[in-house]
Amino acid sequence: MSITLIYLCVFAYLLGSIPFGLVFIKIFTAQDLRKIGSGNIGATNARRAGGWRLGLATLICDVLKGAIPVLIASTASPGNENALKEIWMAISAISAFCGHLFPVYLKFKTGGKGVATAAGCFVVISPVALLIALAAFVITAGISKRVSAGSLAAAASLPISVFWMNQSPAIIGCTLIISMAIIIRHKDNIKRVFAGTEPKIGK
Predict the structure, then answer these.
(1) How many Å apart are CA 61 and CA 71, to the nearest integer?
(2) Average pLDDT rounded to a whole number, residues 157-172
(3) Given 27, 44, 104, 110, which residue has the most CB atoms within 10 angstroms?
């Protein structure tokens, strides 16, 4: 493995590990986001704790920490072979995503669910597939009035969209790993949806 790729993976993981929601809420409200609402450090809970501005800031930063490493990988990979570039992009995406889920700065605990960071990765990897997943999110969240349901629909549709776009085995494998991880991280939300206790949008 190229030493450059190793450095890139470390950078992607460390960037992905930055808990922007936790930091923003701590700075502007002096609260611990992990002790508010769902306890999640992502944008949805940041909005609940600090309002839409802090929620939006968290969302943007979480997207960027997925997009930046993958964009770097797309330009830093050696040679002109698409297959090699896609391998670099896939590895960088998984590294950034794992950073968000298991942040070193929080002792690998209380990470987010990875939806926004995954979206950032796929803005670069396959923007059309991401748009399809985003449409699934909007439709499902709009019907159910639940962000978690929309996130699950997006995660389930993303691998299908990527496969339909004829992406490489590396990208398809990366997508499956990320999508399955998102679904698993939503296991408590799934239980609450079936129990009818999952909070609705705006509540």
Answers:
(1) 15
(2) 91
(3) 44
